[in-house]
Write a structure and sequence with these properties.
Strand content: 15-25%
CATH class of the largest domain: Alpha Beta
Structural class: alpha/beta
Number of strands: 9
CATH topology of the largest domain: Hypothetical Protein Ta0175, Chain: A, domain 2
Low-confidence stretches: none
Distance between the termini: 29 Å
Order of helices and strands: EEHHEEHEEHEHEEH
Radius of gyration: 17 Å
Number of domains: 2
Strand order of the largest sheet: 3-4-6-5
Length: about 170
């Protein structure tokens, strides 16, 4: 979701776009009885357009994909750190959301800098933006190109990357 004014106002155009073909309850129902798949309980983990799970083992992901494919519901599955699974509408991703905001507000691609460390950041890191991958990133991101690869982790890596991109 895209929020403005500290989360008080939503981008209704984006919400309508990602809502097409999204059936959150059907996703939850399809995955309810799969062993090793547990809904995340943190309040921010569950959103109208995101269902988040913790997987207990690698075999659970194959079972999730089979169940969702059988359901015929379009979806986007993002597995981060080997066991955190986000199920999103097929039309949603961080990268697509940023592209939507950039187009809506007339922002050029070279004016947007993104930073990330895991698979749930991939879509924005491989997009048309200036990007920073922090040192404590998932190994699976190492195939990305065109990014600044920070030598320091977390927030320090973001600051390092902003300096490299000439912002600081």
């Amino acid at each position: 979701e895209i929020q403005y004014d500290g989360g008080v106002r939503f981008d209704e155009e984006w919400r309508a776009h990602i809502d097409r073909s999204w059936e959150r309850k059907a996703i939850v129902d399809a995955l309810a009885d799969i062993e090793g798949v547990r809904l995340q309980s943190h309040p921010l983990a569950q959103r109208p357009h995101k269902v988040s799970y913790t997987l207990s083992d690698g075999g659970a992901m194959a079972a999730v994909k089979r169940a969702l494919d059988r359901s015929k519901i379009p979806y986007r599955a993002i597995l981060s750190h080997g066991h955190y699974l986000d199920i999103l509408p097929i039309r949603a991703s961080k990268g697509l959301a940023i592209e939507h905001v950039a187009k809506k507000w007339g922002m050029g691609e070279g004016t947007i800098i993104v930073a990330g460390d895991s698979e749930n950041d991939r879509s924005m890191l491989e997009g048309p933006f200036l990007s920073i991958v922090v040192a404590n990133h998932e190994e699976s991101l190492e195939d990305l190109s065109g990014c600044y690869w920070a030598k320091t982790p977390s927030a320090a890596g973001i600051i390092e990357g902003l300096a490299w991109w000439g912002v600081l």
